[in-house]
Amino acid sequence: MCTLASYGKDSGLKTSRIATDEVKLKISQKGLYALHALMTLARRYQQRATTVRDIASESDLPVKFLGLILLELKHARIVESARGSAGGWRLRRAPSEIRLSEIIRMMDGPLAPFGDADRLRILIAGDTEHRALYQVFLDVRDSAATILDNTTLADILAKQRSAKRKAVRSPIERKSAAK
Hints:
By secondary structure, the chain is of the alpha+beta class. 54% of the residues lie in helices and 13% in strands.
């Protein structure tokens, strides 16, 4: 059984989890907030800089924590800040150039629910009795890494727009599309 649960700031839990029975892939609350903030900035990419308060409001994030996250993203050269009356935050690169894997690795470390790839390779080489099991874990890690390496903020925005278009179609349009 596989489940995805996203725990908001009011729940008291600190991670979002993708769980399969005994194995959990965790994205920290900090990582999730960074992704939400970057999605807000990606939607506003062609506009002027966005204030921390506006990002927090649109993404439903705590302002203080968001400020610290934005500073980390600035040090990683993903966002930049502008001073003055029109100041705020903006993406340093186009949304099509920012990969999800880059953000998650920066905020949370390796993209693996079972440890990093090098550790798995050591287990595969050294534990002959469980080699096949560890190889499956490595394959899962590699598949997840490939998906995240090949998905950009622009890809997510495109999926959001597509989902919104489908949601606002009239019942007649939905009926004719189903035929």
